[in-house]
Amino acid sequence: MTSLAPKIDHSKCIGCGICFFVCPTNPKVFQPCRGLSWVVHPEACTGCGRCVKYCPVHAIELVPLEHAGPKLPRDFIGEVVIGKLIGKVKQ
Ligand code: SF4
Ligand code: SF4
User: Fold this and answer.
1) What is the total count of domains within the chain?
2) Residue nearest to atom 3 of ligand 1 (CA)
3) What CATH number should be reported for the domain holding residue 22?
4) Alpha carbon 75 to chain centroid distance?
5) pLDDT digit string (tens) for 63-80?
6) How far apart are the first and last CA of the chain?
């Protein structure tokens, strides 16, 4: 059986973060950054389809795992980590 995972069309994505919040996995498949959603843990996807269903602009489709993405660019990883640390400090 082929594993499925999301592919996001960044020409449609408005960065609302709904996919991040509705995805039930841990770790999360998605990571919001710089006004877009990125695929960071495609292997965690269960194929439940919630992200496809709730994305308001229909930017997500489920594809074979090897075609999932776009992946978070290496240059952006630092600011995501810092953002999480700052979020923890504020709590
Ligand atoms: S739900 Fe759709 S529009 Fe919103 S961040 Fe995810 S991919 Fe982008
Ligand atoms: S199909 Fe389900 S598990 Fe996979 S990324 Fe979308 S919401 Fe997460």
Assistant:
1) 1
2) 13
3) 3.30.70.20
4) 17
5) 999 999 999 998 898 888
6) 42
